[in-house]
Write a structure and sequence with these properties.
The chain is of the alpha+beta class.
């Protein structure tokens, strides 16, 4: 009986974590030949920014961090300083 309750609780917790993660989902996009490609997703803005900076330093291609709705939060391009569209 205890095992059943424990399994139900785990399933319930995973649902809550999925909800939280989907609310705070950031995607890293890279532009190549005029098209934007999604590189990866992250639940942490800090992690997404670090990934974007690393991708930019390695490829020198324009890179952006976007929210799930497509709003650009952070981006970097060659010859331009880091730009921030929205920090909230």
């Amino acid at each position: 009986m205890v095992a059943l309750v424990h399994q139900l609780k785990q399933k319930k917790d995973h649902g809550i974590l999925d909800e939280i993660q989907s609310v705070h989902c950031f995607s890293v996009f890279i532009e190549h030949r005029g098209r934007w490609f999604e590189g990866c997703r992250s639940a942490s803005l800090r992690e997404a920014r670090e990934t974007a900076m690393d991708a930019f330093q390695r490829s020198r291609l324009p890179t952006e961090v976007r929210r799930e709705d497509g709003t650009v939060i952070f981006g970097v391009r060659a010859g331009y300083p880091d730009f921030v569209a929205d920090e909230s």
